[in-house]
Every structure is written in C-alpha cells, then in structure tokens.
Design goal:
By secondary structure, the protein is of the alpha+beta class. It folds into two domains: 193 residues, Cyclophilin-like (Cyclophilin), CATH 2.40.100.10; 61 residues, no CATH class. Helices cover 39% and strands 17% of the residues. Helix 3 crosses helix 5. It is globular, with a radius of gyration of 22 Å. The N terminus is likely disordered.
Length: 275
C-alpha cells in the first residue's frame, strides 16, 4: 500500500510540475465566458494570432452574447458560436451559421492539444475543406475523458494511420493523369499495380516516421490524469484553454439533449475580455 501511495504521489507531483511549467510558458489574453452554470476564464494563445485576434474582435463586438451552446456531447465537447442560435426556436436545427469567412489553420502541436478545457475552432469536414480552415465564429471546449495506456497506444496508431491515409491521397493526386488514363482504358490490372506501387512508396516513406506519432510523455500524463480528445489533435486548431472553471464544462456536458445534441433547455453565453 505504501509503495502505491509513493508512486501515485510522484506521478501527481510530476503532472503538477508539468502543468505549472506549461502555464508559465503560455502568454495571451484572458476572456471570461459566463453561463447559468458558472463562469470560465479562458486564455487565448499568442501562438495562434489569427484565431486570437478574430475571437477578440467578435467578443468586443458583443457577437457571442446570448448565443447558445447548441451542441453538447458528454465526454466529448460543448460547442457554441452559431449566430443563428440567438433567440432560436426549440425546433430550429443549429450548427450551420457563420460569419462569411474562415481562418487558416494554426496548428501548434504538440505544444497545444485537445486536453480537457482546450478551446478549439469548429470547421467543415476534410472533403470540402482539405486545408482544415476554421469557422470564423464557431468554437468548442473539450471535456473528453481520461485514457489508459492501452487507449493511448491505440490512439497513436490511429494518428499514424491518419497520416498515412492523408499521404496516400496526396500521392494519388500527383498521379491523377495516370489514373485517368488507366480508368479510360478500363485497365483494372494497371490500376491495381498503381495502387500497390503507391502503398509501397507510402510504407517506405513512413519506415522511420513511426516515432513521430508517439505522444510526448507529458502529454500522455495529461490525457491519463485530466483527459481529453486526442483523436482531434492536428485536425482542428486549438487556440486557447480554460484556466478557471473546468467544472462548468462538466455541468454543461451533463445536461439532457435532444436528437442532434442540442440541450433541451437553452444554455446562453456571454463573453468579455478581462485581461
């Protein structure tokens, strides 16, 4: 029993040390997001200046005041910022509203990732948005869940496979004209050979890259002790984090929702700059 206590205490102190150092290195502007469930203070990162400046512009305009957290999924995230959600009737489908522009992705991984409390930009899917550009107004705050070692190892494999899939389609696009000719000729054998050649090229490129998709030890400890949604890392821009009021995320994530993940009772927000 004593040994378990010592190991646990050592791990706790290590995580506290990492978090303290992490916060000390981060600079930015703080905003205050109020809801009926409590208030969250959120640090906007200076390392993601386009997202920071756009968010502050909207906050200072009062854009977010009286908008809803229109999509809530327990152990995943709470999403808001749809301008159509203001005074929206209960029957209205939400999530498609925007401000008419998008923001270039600003990935700062592995420094910033989808731990619990991470503030990230929503966006359209890869099929229509291969550059992963962010919505000009919609955002989400991560709740996620704690992970064990096996789940983290599985997540590392998923991240590696996602990278391989992305590279596969990049190579395929480079060979687009060749693919067209083979399809026109209905050369199925040629298409199979080309597919095999692309896979062989892919495997060769990734032979020495497997370690690139291993999470840093500090990140693993955060996902194990605080939780988060690591499968979103490097796919959506994380541009801030909740520094006070993590319990508010849990309270909102626990509410009853309708089909489509909209809370049965509206959850309004207001946001102001405090620092």
């Amino acid at each position: 029993m004593k040994k378990i206590f010592i190991v646990t205490l050592t791990l706790l102190l290590a995580v506290m040390s990492v978090n303290a150092a992490d916060k000390a290195q981060k600079k930015g502007t703080v905003v205050e997001l109020k809801t009926e469930f409590g208030t969250m203070k959120i640090l906007l990162y200076d390392d993601t200046p386009q997202h920071r400046d756009n968010f502050l512009k909207l906050v200072n305009q009062g854009f977010y005041d009286s908008l809803l957290f229109h999509r809530v999924i327990k152990e995943f995230m709470i999403q808001g910022g749809d301008p159509d959600s203001k005074n929206a009737p209960a029957s209205k489908q939400l999530g498609a509203g925007d401000v008419g522009y998008t923001i270039p992705a600003e990935f700062v991984y592995p420094k910033y990732y989808h731990k619990k409390g991470a503030l990230a930009a929503a966006r359209q899917g890869d099929q229509v948005n291969p550059e992963k550009r962010s919505s000009g107004c919609q955002f989400y705050i991560v709740q996620g869940k704690k992970m064990n070692d096996a789940e983290i190892q599985q997540m590392e494999k998923i991240l590696l496979n996602k990278a391989k899939e992305k590279r596969f389609y990049e190579i395929a696009r480079e060979k687009n004209e060749e693919i067209k000719k083979l399809r026109i000729a209905k050369d199925q054998e040629g298409l199979r050979k080309l597919n095999d050649d692309i896979i062989a090229q892919l495997e060769k490129e990734f032979e020495s890259k497997a370690s690139d998709f291993k999470m840093p030890d500090e990140m693993k400890e955060v996902y194990k002790t605080i939780g988060g949604t690591p499968f979103l890392d490097n796919d959506y821009t994380v541009f801030g984090e909740v520094i006070e009021g993590l319990e508010v995320i849990d309270a909102i994530a626990a509410v009853k929702t309708r089909p489509g993940d909209r809370p049965e009772n509206d959850i309004k927000m207001s946001i102001k700059v405090v620092k």
